[in-house]
Write a structure and sequence with these properties.
Mean pLDDT: 83
Subcellular location: Nucleus
Domain RecA family profile: 74-238
Number of domains: 2
Main location: nucleus
Distance between the termini: 23 Å
Structural class: alpha/beta
Number of helices: 12
Shape: globular
Family: Belongs to the RecA family. RAD51 subfamily.
Strand order of the largest sheet: 4-3-5-6
Number of strands: 6
Helix content: 40-55%
Order of helices and strands: HHHHHEHEHEHHEHEHHE
CATH topology of the largest domain: Rossmann fold
Strand content: 5-15%
CATH class of the largest domain: Alpha Beta
Organism: Armadillidium nasatum
CATH architecture of the largest domain: 3-Layer(aba) Sandwich
């Protein structure tokens, strides 16, 4: 929680300007400063500084939840709409979890992701949005439209497609930049499913076989960030 971006918090326009000028980006950046330092660099009174520290300290506390709420959260899943597959996976892709879909090239992983995205748009009420990170630059909006039109339960209209958000990601740097703001984007746009298609493509583009440690470190960092996002917002990440 200490890594939460200050820009995503309701601190008031004037204080946000002071925070930006002081080059403070996360809750941890503020709480690591002394009381006197904060008063000086943010131009706050003692009372204002104390209020800020209390507010940001609360942001670091894990939310208190009842056992029944946690159980219901774990039982909530995004269905594949295939009875056998949903039964095998106990309902589909579980919210709050990071799910990896792997397979040889050409077996249909991207098509499967399209169908899963449409299921998210159809099965939530009101419909949750979908965030699709396209690293291979081959997203096919017309194919998604066809899947929606082929659904007997869904009417294909602009309101459905408007909830489908696509980012085309060409480099590791751009992927890291998107990850840094993804939590706020998901909150603002009521995202229920995040799809990365595919992480392996980015790794192949920018890492050689001689950089195995760096590859593994990057993958572990991405997985940790995506898992934290899924758990914090109770959404599905594929």
């Amino acid at each position: 929680m200490s890594e939460r971006k200050l820009a995503s918090l309701d601190l008031g326009d004037d204080l946000q300007k002071e925070i930006k000028n002081a080059n403070l980006k996360t809750v941890e950046d503020v709480l690591s400063k002394s009381f006197l330092q904060l008063m000086t660099i943010l131009h706050l009174s003692a009372d204002e500084t104390e209020d800020l520290i209390i507010q940001l300290s609360k942001e670091c506390l894990p939310p208190c939840q009842k056992g029944a709420e946690l159980l219901e959260k774990k039982l909530t899943s995004l269905p594949f709409c295939d009875p056998e597959l949903d039964s095998l996976l106990q309902g589909g892709i579980h919210r709050g979890h990071l799910t990896e879909l792997s397979g040889a090239p050409g077996v249909g992983k991207t098509q499967f992701s399209y169908q899963l995205a449409v299921n998210c748009l159809r099965c939530s009420s009101p419909p949750n949005g979908v965030c699709f990170l396209d690293t291979e630059l081959c997203f096919k909006a017309d194919r998604v439209n066809e899947i929606i039109e082929g659904s007997l339960e869904a009417e294909c209209d602009s309101s459905i497609m408007s909830k489908f958000h696509v980012f085309q990601v060409e480099t590791v740097a751009s992927f890291n930049e998107i990850l840094s703001t993804l939590e706020l984007f998901c909150i603002v746009n009521d995202i229920g499913l995040v799809i990365v298609d595919s992480i392996a493509s980015l790794i192949r583009k920018e890492f050689s076989q001689d950089t195995k440690f760096e590859r593994a470190s990057t993958l572990a960092s991405w997985a940790a960030q995506l898992k934290e996002l899924a758990d914090k917002l109770s959404i599905s990440v594929r």
